[in-house]
């Protein structure tokens, strides 16, 4: 596979045609005028392409969407005001009452809650599976299965989904494979591996600044057009469109993503090795001993590394809380949810971003109550950071 998401993205750069500005102008209009009533009517009937209203399209969101589509290798994309806006719109467009979706049981807690508690109210059947067990996935298939859903690297267990194999299963049964690639932009190109739709929380690595929530849906032209169909498009009618001011910022941040991913990955690999050397139970797919290492190696775009996410197991909530408190005091990072920021962030998943998942299900997934999830930052001297982390571990008498 020779696809290079960073080069493909870079090739979308162009001067603003009106002013020769190096960045694209921000479109500051919610509505757009037509020369004639007839032109407007044609636009409503889909006979004329034009900007109509910002909830549908605006020029700034279109620029960002084109860049994202190039990065993913899809025909089109559409941008939303949050990752959940993207996930919920993407799924609701593919599912109706009486349909069935198979989903990884380990996903972001909000996605889990949406599939467990919300979509079921509208007559959609949901099966939660261990996505690494392909036999279990196949067994869960029903005649009404319309979607298989997973995260390329799952939150917070850092399982790697076998996208090529899941794509085979979904194609065989006529379902769509929808993949959340939030943890691993550029590292994985799910569409190139056979997925049908890719969703993102751009709040995370893609934007990388923690100054806004945002999301994206990437897929075929037909699918994206169906999402924003004026009469029955989920995105058009539920209205999660991204604000163009934010869109413009994210668009600019996108062009440093490849460098940031490489540094996040370098720093995470360094820390993961140090945890391993100190006999801390560490989950990082970059480590050769990790059970997902070979699968990741054989399906990833190697130049971007194994990503910025690490999970370590401190066995108890008390240990995790003490450790995170000291790390924050010493400046290692912030005790905060979310990820993909330039400063390291850490949280105890079971009591935060996965707290929507009942404790018994957390146990079934193998999620320890002492799991500390790191989103490793862009530190210039990661050895210095490790020394501080080591002191924190010694102070709580864990090593
Ligand atoms: N997908 C993943 C993997 C996430 O970790 C998150 C948030 O943490 C989301 C989706 C939801 O994104 P947002 O918070 O932008 O709605």
CATH-defined fold name of the largest domain: Aspartate Aminotransferase, domain 2
Uncertain segments are none
H/E order of the elements? Answer: HHHEHEHEHEHEEEHHHHEHEHEEHEH
Going by CATH, the homologous superfamily of the largest domain would be: Type I PLP-dependent aspartate aminotransferase-like (Major domain)
Helix percent band: 25-40%
Structural class: alpha/beta
Using only C-alpha atoms, the radius of gyration works out to: 21 Å
CATH level 1 class label of the largest domain:
Alpha Beta
Assembly form of the protein: single chain
Number of helices: 15
Number of structural domains: 2
What descriptors fit this protein?
single chain; 399 residues; alpha/beta; Aspartate Aminotransferase, domain 2; Aspartate Aminotransferase, domain 1; 2 domains; 7-stranded mixed sheet; 5-stranded mixed sheet; 12 strands; 38% helix; 15% strand; binds pyridoxal-5'-phosphate
Structure description:
This protein is an alpha/beta fold and 399 residues long. The protein folds into 2 domains: 250 residues, Type I PLP-dependent aspartate aminotransferase-like (Major domain) (Aspartate Aminotransferase, domain 2, 3-Layer(aba) Sandwich); 138 residues, Aspartate Aminotransferase, domain 1 (Alpha-Beta Complex), CATH 3.90.1150. Strand 4, helix 7 and strand 5 form a beta-alpha-beta unit. Helix 3 runs parallel beside helix 10. The longest helix has 21 residues. The two termini are 43 Å apart. The model has no long low-confidence stretch (mean pLDDT 97). The structure holds pyridoxal-5'-phosphate (PLP).
């Amino acid at each position: 596979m020779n696809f290079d998401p960073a080069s493909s993205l870079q090739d979308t750069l162009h001067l603003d045609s009106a002013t020769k500005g190096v960045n694209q102008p921000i479109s500051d209009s919610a509505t757009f005028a037509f020369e004639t009533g007839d032109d407007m009517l044609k636009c409503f009937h889909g006979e004329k392409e034009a900007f109509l209203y910002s909830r549908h399209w605006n020029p700034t969101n279109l620029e960002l969407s084109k860049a994202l589509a190039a990065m993913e290798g899809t025909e089109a994309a559409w941008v939303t005001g949050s990752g959940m806006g993207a996930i919920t719109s993407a799924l609701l467009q593919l599912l109706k009452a009486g349909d069935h979706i198979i989903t990884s049981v380990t996903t972001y807690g909000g996605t889990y809650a949406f599939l467990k508690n919300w979509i079921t109210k509208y007559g959609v059947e949901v099966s939660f599976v261990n996505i690494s067990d392909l036999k279990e996935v196949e067994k869960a298939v029903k005649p009404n299965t319309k979607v298989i859903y997973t995260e390329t690297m799952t939150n917070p267990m850092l399982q790697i989904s076998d996208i090529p194999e899941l794509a085979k299963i979904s194609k065989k049964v006529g379902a769509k494979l929808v993949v959340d690639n939030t943890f691993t932009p550029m590292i994985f190109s799910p569409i190139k591996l056979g997925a049908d739709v890719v969703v993102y929380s751009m709040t995370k690595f893609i934007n990388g600044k923690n100054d806004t929530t945002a999301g994206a849906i990437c897929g075929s032209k037909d699918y994206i057009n169906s999402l924003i169909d004026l009469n029955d498009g989920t995105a058009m009618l539920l209205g999660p469109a991204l604000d163009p001011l934010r869109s413009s910022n994210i668009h600019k941040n996108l062009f440093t993503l490849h460098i940031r991913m490489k540094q996040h990955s370098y720093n995470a690999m360094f820390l993961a090795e140090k945890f391993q050397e100190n006999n801390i139970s560490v989950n990082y797919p970059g480590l050769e001993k990790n059970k997902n290492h070979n699968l990741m190696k054989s399906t990833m775009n190697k130049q971007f590394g194994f990503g910025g996410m690490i999970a370590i197991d401190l066995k108890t909530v008390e240990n995790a809380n003490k450790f995170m408190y000291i790390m924050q005091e010493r400046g290692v990072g912030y005790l905060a949810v979310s990820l993909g920021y330039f400063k390291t962030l850490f949280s105890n998943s079971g009591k935060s971003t996965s707290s929507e998942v009942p404790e018994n299900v957390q146990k079934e997934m193998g999620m320890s109550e002492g799991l500390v999830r790191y989103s490793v930052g862009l530190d210039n001297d990661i050895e210095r950071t490790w020394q501080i982390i080591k002191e924190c571990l010694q102070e709580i008498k864990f090593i």
